[in-house]
Design goal:
The protein is an alpha/beta fold. It has six helices and nine strands; from the N terminus they run E-H-E-H-E-E-H-E-H-E-H-E-E-E-H. It has a single domain, classed as Alpha/beta knot (3-Layer(aba) Sandwich). Helix content is about 25%, strand content about 25%.
Length: about 190
């Protein structure tokens, strides 16, 4: 069983982060989800995964892989099955991307942590975990379908553009996005 580790790199757990983290927990299960670098006690996170105050860099993990768009090699199914831990930067992404995973996380991890990408485009955290989960189950990255940017229409004249990459899932190739997040965004605009 793989463990998906989110190194929380924001100053606090924003509502948007919590929604994405809940979506990840629904995908991989509470026992397979760890949150590291969480500076304040957070009951919401401890309900959906295991919480560590220390950074993942202090955990001394073996068979671990950091997912970083700046990594030279793309994660492949055969090697993904060998990793026990997958590490992601819990970052509210900027557009254009500022390469925060490389600057704030990857450079602090030891040489024994493998570095892989899932393409060069910026994913939401829950989509990054979804992609790695699919690769870990044997599906090559090249067989996944994506949509770059997502426009959410609220009514005939209002919409919001999310400039990230979303995985297309199901028979209808719908973007992988939390229904809770869509609801949050529709209320947030008011």
């Amino acid at each position: 069983m793989a463990v998906y580790i989110i190194e929380h790199l924001e100053p606090r757990v924003w509502k948007w982060c919590l929604i994405e983290y809940r979506h990840i927990s629904q995908l991989v299960g509470r026992r397979s989800l760890w949150f590291t670098n969480v500076k304040r006690k957070n009951k919401n996170l401890s309900r959906i995964g295991r919480v560590f105050h220390d950074s993942v860099s202090k955990l001394n993990l073996k068979n671990a892989c950091i997912l970083d768009p700046e990594a030279k090699k793309t994660l492949a199914p055969k090697e993904a099955k060998k990793f026990k831990y997958f590490i992601f930067g819990g970052i509210l992404g900027d557009y254009p991307p500022k390469k925060r995973t490389a600057k704030e996380l990857t450079k602090f991890l030891g040489k024994n942590i493998a570095r892989r990408n899932i393409g060069r485009k910026q994913f939401s955290t829950d989509n990054a975990v979804y992609v790695v989960n699919q690769i870990q189950k044997g599906r090559p990255f090249s067989k996944l379908k994506f949509q770059d940017t997502l426009e959410i229409h609220f009514n005939k004249i209002e919409s919001l553009i999310l400039p990230y990459r979303y995985t297309l899932v199901g028979k209808n190739n719908e973007p992988f996005i939390s229904k809770e997040l869509l609801k949050f965004l529709s209320h947030k605009r008011v």
